[in-house]
Specification:
54 strands; 5-stranded mixed beta sheet; 2% helix; mainly beta; elongated
Length: 652
């Protein structure tokens, strides 16, 4: 039989030595051979094979007689790749947190159980590629979303760095505390199809949770009815997890806060009542609760009551849980409208257009949470008192000075007669244009605000007057444009009006004011314009003649000469203080040569200059007047912030 002489350091297992007594015939294990020296003194064996990288000699014995090592030749068998028979994986780690790398060692063995030491073996093992896999149906590598599996090279073939001791290190990171890393969980195979798995994984590691990171919320018994009564079939469980989804506890997380986040549903806010124990009679508002995860990783709340139709989620937060409530891992909790519960009202105008001052109707509809008309609550709705507002402002119920809102809107506290969930409400609109969604405000004191779901166009009423817009004042020889509007009783321009009217101009008789291009004003869509001129400074009275048989109003326009003189209307008083604003600020007026205020001047820049002589031309003041310029508006300019920088008497 073979006897070990040398080979793998520390190895003493011997392989299988095969040979044959007849050259070229089948070989067999020499340890099973019986040699007969009864008639021959020498026996030759042929065609040796040995499956271990070793130097051996052959042990031959008869009874107590055995061939000594000194009398036996050494037989050398060199390394061959087929000598690698198996691998065993071991680890020095026994307990480690999820997401932390564990240190493992892969050891290569020949088929005699010897460790594959030696530099020759190292070279061979370094040339091989290894593929690692999880043999636990993925349990050890089940990371939380966003984290990668961390077997070496994520399961792809990779080389390892081997030592001459026949070992190679590698790391495995486990995420799931439920399964740990147990014997049989790891597989490794080389590209020579030598596999280490099953019993060849010698060790196991207990995986504990990483630090608590986020809260996970799940519900049971949802959706539930939106009601203030507790629903005994419902519960909500809040789990504290690490980043990989493992159950966690933290000594500092003793007061996690709970808030409600509305995902969808009504704009109103409800109250989320719970019981700490299933069947407890006393409900607790969850937003007032502080949850303690210092010794437990899961808290269940029971018998939920929520009184508004919402889909919502519970948001659980704590400073030591940076992940907060993980949205993707948190269940939405649905609360449905109960039968015939009115969620809101909609207001729809019956017509697309209406006329200013003419009553127009809209239909008010009671709606449940599913968008259905609540048709079985007419008796109750008949007693509901509604209040009204005008959130839209301009354009809605904007009567002129002779109207009052109370006379045109339904009064606050109004009730209506309902039929199958609808009733009619009437308004009068006065300002022409489009009344848009949101212009109508109504509440019944309990349910949400009414929303009007469409728009209505208000057309002007028929014109009752020609109205002359206040024309701009002018300077002689320069035209002033007169605009005439055909207006209804509410001040809206009648865009359907087209009857022309003539203009008549009356001055002081010295000159005759003229209308450029003749007296007729062409009215288009209720608007007409005409330029008028005058060579004489005066006030012209504008009147209208002819046209439609409606009121014709008058207006004036002032013509002055061009700017000629600037005069003070107010002047600073004496005894002012250096650097302080004048007690009386100057106001000046631009006048023409006749001493008339030039109303048409809104551009002249007036500058105040200090002089020490009364003629304001001989000697300039030595100081500076602050804020000494102002622009004329309608012939006048008022100064502000004037002060003087030195002590001396000045004229301006």
């Amino acid at each position: 039989m073979p006897r070990f002489v040398s080979g793998f350091t520390g190895g003493s297992n011997v392989g299988v030595l095969k040979a044959t007594a007849t050259d070229g015939t089948a070989t067999s294990d020499v340890t099973g051979m019986t040699l007969d020296f009864s008639s021959v003194s020498a026996i030759t064996l042929y065609d040796f094979s040995y499956n271990v990288f070793q130097t051996i000699d052959i042990r031959v014995f008869e009874g107590a007689t055995e061939a000594s090592a000194a009398n036996s030749a050494d037989f050398d068998f060199d390394f061959h790749a087929s000598n690698v028979s198996s691998y065993v994986m071991t680890t020095a780690d026994t307990n480690i947190a999820a997401g932390t790398a564990t240190s493992w060692t892969l050891t290569a063995y020949d088929n005699a159980g010897n460790v594959m030491t030696d530099a020759t073996n190292q070279t061979e093992l370094n040339s091989r590629n290894y593929t690692f896999s999880d043999n636990s149906a993925g349990n050890i590598n089940s990371p939380h979303a966003g984290n990668n599996v961390t077997l070496p090279n994520a399961g792809a073939a990779t080389s390892l760095v081997w030592t001459t001791s026949g070992t190679a290190p590698f790391n495995v990171t486990a995420f799931n505390t439920t399964n740990n890393i147990a014997t049989n969980y790891l597989n490794v195979s080389d590209d020579g199809t030598v596999v280490a798995s099953g019993a060849n994984t010698a060790d196991s590691i207990t995986i504990v949770n990483a630090s608590g990171d986020h809260f996970h919320v799940t519900g049971s018994g949802f959706p539930s009815s939106a009601t203030a009564a507790q629903d005994g079939a419902t519960s909500v469980t809040i789990d504290f997890h690490d980043v990989y989804g493992n159950a966690a506890t933290e000594s500092t997380v003793t007061n996690a806060a709970v808030a409600l986040n509305r995902v969808s549903g009504l704009a109103t806010t409800g109250t989320f009542n719970i019981s700490r124990g299933d069947g407890d009679a006393t409900p607790l508002d969850i937003t007032g609760e502080a949850l303690d995860f210092s010794s437990v990783s899961s808290i269940t709340l029971h018998d939920i009551a929520y009184d508004v139709s919402h889909v919502l989620e519970l948001v659980v937060t704590h400073g030591d849980a940076p992940g907060g409530t993980a949205g993707a891992d948190t269940q939405d909790l649905g609360f449905n409208f109960t039968t015939s519960t009115i969620a809101n009202y909609t207001l729809t105008f019956d017509n697309a257009t209406a006329t200013a001052g003419v009553s127009t109707a809209a239909t008010l509809t009671a709606i449940d949470g599913g968008g259905n008309t609540v048709s079985d609550q007419d008796t109750a709705l008949n007693s509901v008192a509604f209040n009204f507002s005008i959130p839209g402002g301009t354009g809605f119920d904007a009567p002129n000075a002779s109207q009052t809102v109370a006379g045109n809107d339904p009064a606050n506290g109004s009730t209506f007669t309902w039929s199958s969930g609808t009733t009619s409400v009437s308004w009068s609109f006065f300002a022409s244009g489009t009344v848009g969604t949101g212009f109508v405000g109504m509440t019944d004191g309990v349910n949400p605000t009414v929303t009007n779901s469409d728009t209505i166009v208000i057309d002007p009423n028929s014109a009752i007057e020609y109205f002359i817009q206040n024309p701009a004042e002018s300077i002689t020889g320069t035209a002033s444009t007169v605009t005439v509007l055909a207006r209804d009783t509410y001040g809206n321009t009648d865009t359907n009006f087209g009857t022309d009217v003539d203009i008549a101009l009356t001055g002081d008789g010295l000159n005759t004011p003229t209308a450029v291009g003749g007296a007729t004003i062409t009215m288009t869509a209720g608007v007409g314009t005409k330029d008028v001129n005058d060579a004489n400074p005066e006030t012209i009275s504008i009147s209208l003649t002819g046209g439609a048989a409606i009121t014709k109003l008058t207006e004036d326009v002032i013509f002055t000469g061009p700017p000629d003189t600037i005069v003070f209307l107010t002047e600073p008083v004496i005894n002012q203080t250096i650097g302080n604003n004048f007690q009386t600020m100057p106001q000046v007026e631009v006048r023409d040569s006749a001493g008339t205020r030039v109303w048409a001047d809104s551009s002249t820049l007036v500058t105040l200059t200090p002089w020490t002589t009364a003629d304001c031309s001989t000697t300039s003041g030595s100081g500076v007047i602050a804020s000494n310029t102002a622009t004329v508006t309608a012939g006048r300019a008022t100064f502000a912030g004037l002060n003087y920088s030195v002590a001396e008497d000045i004229y301006i």
